[in-house]
């Protein structure tokens, strides 16, 4: 990015707000006029279904832009909550006006990232109806590890999952008991090892095959982006 583009992004992170684990940042159906950059920690977004159950939509990592739906809707279509002690940088949605006007390439990049996230979400939701429980859990393990690896190049095969079995279940459409069985099965198959909350991939190829997994954060083509102003 150009210096001007970097300065424009930096202005979005001038303020910082701390959140404790379990704190709600944005609540479904409540008015929202702010967007956020996740600076530290891990968060998630979810919706509540008619039967009172929770469907987790995305797990969020540092650098992610939160509450983007606030650009379109006056009321949030999802709840965003902290999974760990976290820090976010809030900014008014009017800040996006300047980015779109002065830095159209940067606005295009934000749109592209949003589409990558949408496709990854579509894959996971489609998997609820077309893959096995084992495949859903395996795909989520790969998704979380790949997001963490993008932030820390040192993460290759071993990482701290940082999710409860209930949270994994709410993301994959399974009960916590079923998640526990699937994790044990994946481990018994020699695909992963678990110890003290850490997961180690032992056979990533077989894990990806079991998950029918496609890494939507690779193979990206941004050759269409306009020149920087």
- Give me the CATH architecture of the largest domain, please: Orthogonal Bundle
Number of helices: 7
Within the CATH hierarchy, at the fold level, what is the topology of the largest domain?
Arc Repressor Mutant, subunit A
Shape: globular
Indicate the percent of residues in helices. Answer: 25-40%
Unreliable spans are: none
Characterize the main sheet.
4 strands, antiparallel
| Secondary-structure element string | HEEEEEEEEHHHEHHEEH
Within CATH, the superfamily of the largest domain carries the name: Winged helix-like DNA-binding domain superfamily/Winged helix DNA-binding domain
Strand order of the largest sheet: 1-8-3-6
How many domains, as an integer? Answer: 2
Number of β-strand runs: 11
Average of the residue pLDDT scores: 91
User: What is the beta-strand fraction?
Assistant: 15-25%
End-to-end distance, in Å?
11 Å
Structural class: alpha+beta
The rounded Rg comes to 18 Å
How would you summarize what this structure contains?
The protein is of the alpha+beta class. Helices cover 40% and strands 22% of the residues. The chain contains seven helices and eleven strands.
Write the layout of secondary structure elements.
Layout: H1 3-10, E1 17-19, E2 24-26, E3 34-40, E4 43-48, E5 54-60, E6 65-66, E7 79-82, E8 86-92, H2 95-102, H3 104-130, H4 133-151, E9 158-160, H5 165-172, H6 176-188, E10 192-195, E11 198-201, H7 204-211
Antiparallel strand pairs: 1-8, 2-7, 3-6, 3-8, 4-5, 4-7, 9-11, 10-11
Helix pairs in contact: 2-3, 4-5, 4-6, 4-7, 5-6
What report would you give on this structure?
There is one protein chain. The chain is an alpha+beta fold. It has two domains: 15-102, Jelly Rolls (Sandwich); 123-211, Arc Repressor Mutant, subunit A (Orthogonal Bundle), CATH 1.10.10. Helices cover 40% and strands 22% of the residues. The chain contains seven helices and eleven strands. The chain has a four-stranded antiparallel β-sheet with strand order 1-8-3-6, with no helix packed on it. A hairpin with a 5-residue loop joins β4 and β5. The radius of gyration is 18 Å and the shape is globular. The model has no long low-confidence stretch (mean pLDDT 91).
